[in-house]
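Q: Could you fold this chain for me?
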Amino acid sequence: MCIWVTGFVPGGGTLPGVAPVADTISARTLLMLTTMNAQSIASDSRVLAFAEDARAYCDFIERLTKGKPPNFYADLLRLLSNLAVSGLNLPFAMPDQDVKRDSDLSHDEWSHLASAVADSIATETSALLEQHADDEAELTRATMLWDDLTDIYRDIKNGLRLFNMETPDAGLEAVWEWRFGYENHWGCDLMRALATVHEIRFFVRAD
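A: Sure. Below is the predicted structure, expressed as structure tokens.
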């Protein structure tokens, strides 16, 4: 099977002035260029770096059920920053088949952690609400911090549970979910949370 690389336009035809490329690319070659092999996941440094950052963040959030630690915002800012960088470096992965996973984070688990996160940031977010009393967008950003932090946790934790199954197909599925979520969901939450945590750390002067 071969794929022609052309100036194709949806609905038919080609782009004006763009001639079809004479060479063809085999589907196998194209797949190798755009996806990672299932067997390569365990040794891919980009995936391992993200998995390490994901575990560190999840461990940090889980420990909040035992109370707010010292240097909370300094550590949180570092963890979020690490996720922003390693998430950006995740390779493209296309799972070959759906993976039967053990379980995703339940609503009760999420709610328990969300309560611990909200308690940990209550004082500082209240300060932000007072500071931005006349700015609706800033009020929303401050109010959503607890939700952003726990949604980030849920999305990357579900991927970790897949990744920890240590099978090639589960690994591919985990990487696909992490990257898709980074681009479309939890990455958006991450960028908003980074701005809020940065403001708390350096303008509210927490920690």
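A (continued): The first strand starts at residue 2 and ends at 4.
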